[in-house]
Amino acid sequence: MKTPHVRLGVIGAGNVGRALVELLSDGSRQIALVDGATAVLDIVGVAVRDPDTPRAGIDPALLVGDALALAAREDVDVLVELAGGVEPARTWVETALRRGASVVTANKTLMAEHGTELAQVAHEHGADLLYEASVAGGIPIIRALRTSLAGEKINRVIGIVNGTTNFILSQMTSEGRDYDEALKEAQALGFAEADPTADVEAFDAAAKVQILSSLAIGTALHGEPISREGISAVRSVDVEFARRAGYVIKLIGVVERVGANGLSRRTHPALIPVDHPLAAVHGAMNAVFIEGERSGPLMWLGQGAGGYPTATAVLGDVLHAARNRVSGRHDVPFSVDYRLVSVDAGDLSSVFYLSIDVRDEPGVLAEVAGVFGRHRVSIQSMEQSGFGQEARLSFLTHEAKARDIASTIGDLGQLASVDSIGASIRVIDGGVA
Ligand code: NAP
After folding, report:
1. In this structure, are 127 and 242 located in the same domain?
2. pTM of the full predicted structure?
3. Does 391 share its domain with 369?
4. Is 208 marked active-site?
């Protein structure tokens, strides 16, 4: 039987697009590629903003400047969107899906905001919409959730899904850098953008939490807000306290079932015990830790970014889409569980770490302890460091509601003896994050 051909249109020839074209053109992979796709893959066009600039490893005859026209071309069977952003990427993807072409994308923002509606369009037109590379780059977590864990009840997902912040916090932990130094180093090494807001304020991690939650628990993907806290308030004294107390600080994204129909989705820094598997995720690496009801704990570790690791995940999707086309099938989207109700982050309980700078005067400790008591926050341990105007009190609480911690902090700020209040950071301990 003659081997069929599947024609690919690629939008974007940046870090990921260039690596994908290289993998697809690699002679040593051709047999595996044809085998994986059950077809010969032909790239018929590569859209970039400026098609006149030569791109190493890409035939100039393939370069085009109009991405929408490429998405609309009848000879594109699978469109690979690797440009990023919501618009015009949403329009390109929808255009391809509406004429029955499958789409592979690495675009987490697009999927977090429009994933459910686009998956429906794909289904109605007999096409695939695949997005493995949109969460944790090279880690095949989406396929694992969609297939291997499809029958499991997942109670909690904790991800270290932003390499930039993990690099910054790792440098603060292992090299004793302060936040600003570690951020500058991340920028110099290409791990952080000149404007690091999307990473350090956890917008990037929040989009990935949306995608993980849709697959792990069945929530809709239409841009609903995630409770979001980044790392810019984490100071080197917090990292140092964590180290002495047997923890490391990480930015985590959490999806968690609460009771029968409750759901919490959030990002925040957390103190993680040094013997927890996530504590060993260093530098720009990513990891996803899953607690299934019957499977128990599972963890994936790998590179969350970078041209080749990300292109590997994109390539897996391209082969899957091609194989489906050859056999006349497409993946059916996961259904949404509309019974799920978001639980207010303020109602969730956790052990908290808090640190406050106070004047070292008689009576201050009793005053501070009184504020904790008024808000039903009980103290597990307290450490005092420094003297005089420089004294610092660091606390670990027993389990307390986030709302009570917030009102404790509010009242502590009113005390004349309190100079400043540092980060309040949740502690992952046993079953609580
Ligand atoms: P990038 O290096 O900035 O490349 C973007 C490419 O898209 C460029 O080739 C650019 O063309 C092209 N492009 C942008 N707007 C366009 C338009 N209107 N029309 C035609 N072409 C356009 O981006 P990247 O790092 O490869 O990332 C691509 C996607 O993968 C994003 O969604 C990103 O979030 C996702 N992702 C990236 C990584 C990673 O490690 N980089 C990891 C996971 C997911 P020009 O070259 O002419 O400017």
Report:
1. no
2. 0.95
3. yes
4. yes
